[in-house]
Write a structure and sequence with these properties.
The protein is of the alpha/beta class and about 325 residues long. It has a domain of about 190 residues: SGNH hydrolase (Rossmann fold, 3-Layer(aba) Sandwich), CATH 3.40.50. It contains 15 helices and 9 strands. It has a 5-stranded parallel beta sheet. It has a two-stranded antiparallel sheet with strand order 1-2. A two-stranded antiparallel ribbon has the order 6-7. α7 packs antiparallel against α8 and α8 runs antiparallel to α9. The protein is globular and about 65 Å long.
């Protein structure tokens, strides 16, 4: 009976991997059956420059600073500003990147990049997600690695697992397709992982300006963000991974317009949670929404959310000086 069960399971597993291979190689238009079945909306080489970023990453070693986080990370930390100070940096932010995604990316790339310091941007927008959105992006733009499979298993979605198996099968067969990065008329990729806005929304946003800048109560109730426990644990896991490799890490939350913060009913609670994790793990946390900065809600933000190039030019030198002070103090 046990042998029959084992044989059945082996046959079932074989059928699964065979179907995964077929679904990964048979196309419908410009999509594979696997991409359709997994409901993956991401186009390889598309939004966010993930493909170009992880091709570019092969050119970087022995970093002074590695930046981690979501799209808020790759649109905030301009690697050129740090290069002007003689600092070798790379921005490994990706769209929708949760701490869980961050952990497995860092696990894969840490040894090659060998950073002295890691700046981990924590954002309340992703702390309540499971990481599948980011995995969709990574699975379309990165080569297969064991950490990709581990990430899929940690996310726990059948869509993530199927995509990871698909990537693995294509890797083993040597049939993994090659893609090129598509241009974006609104943004451009800067070597080192930063993405710069090339189109100003100031004119388009003029009709929103009163609603955006005005601090009157919103018509809709503020949203309560409930952090997922696995994401909070992943923050700790990232900290411990960095420390285990002999590097230092600083947690940070980038500045946002006041109206965005008012839209989150429990922002203060989330900020305290991040600060408590930092305290317990013996690292520094900067919430730049509580540190006075000369940023105008309209003039220095692109779309009521991300810093625009002018805001980036103001924010990063402030961070650099704070980082230097941390190094001098030996914290």
């Amino acid at each position: 009976m046990i042998r029959k069960t084992a044989l059945f399971l082996a046959l079932l597993g074989g059928l699964y991997f065979l179907s995964a291979f077929v679904f990964s190689t048979v196309g419908v238009g410009d999509q594979t059956l696997m991409k359709i079945a997994a409901r993956n909306p991401v186009t390889p080489g598309g939004f966010g420059f993930t493909l170009q970023r992880f091709q570019d990453i092969q050119n970087y070693r022995d970093l002074d600073i590695l930046f981690l986080g979501s799209s808020h990370c790759y649109r905030t930390f301009d690697t050129r500003i740090y290069a002007e100070r003689g600092l070798e940096t790379f921005n490994m932010g990706t769209t929708g990147q949760t701490p869980l995604n961050t952990y497995y990316l860092l696990k894969h790339y840490f040894a090659a990049l060998n950073p002295k310091l890691v700046v981990f941007d924590l954002n309340y927008r992703v702390i309540d997600r499971d990481g599948l959105e980011c995995f969709y992006d990574l699975s379309q733009n990165l080569s297969y690695s064991p950490e990709m499979m581990e990430m899929a298993l940690a996310i726990g979605s059948p869509h993530a697992l199927n995509l990871a198996v698909s990537k693995w099968m294509l890797h083993l067969s040597g049939l993994a397709p090659q893609f090129t990065q598509k241009p974006d008329e609104d943004e451009r990729y800067i070597p080192g992982g930063y993405v710069e806005f090339t189109r100003s929304l100031a004119g388009e946003e003029s009709r929103y300006e009163a609603r955006f800048v005005d601090q009157k109560p919103r018509k809709s109730p503020a949203r309560t963000v409930v952090p997922r426990e696995e994401q909070l644990q992943a923050i700790r896991d990232v900290i411990r991974l960095v420390k285990a490799n002999g590097a230092r890490i600083i947690l940070a939350t980038k500045p946002e317009p006041p109206q965005n913060l008012h839209a989150i009913a429990n922002y203060e609670e989330i900020s305290r949670t991040f600060a408590e994790i930092a305290r317990e793990e013996g690292v520094v946390y900067y919430d730049f929404n509580k540190i006075p900065l000369p940023l105008d809600p309209y003039a220095h933000f692109h779309d009521r959310e991300y810093l625009n190039p002018a805001g980036v030019e103001i924010f990063n030198p402030v961070l650099i000086e704070m980082l230097y002070q941390e190094v001098k103090s030996g914290k």
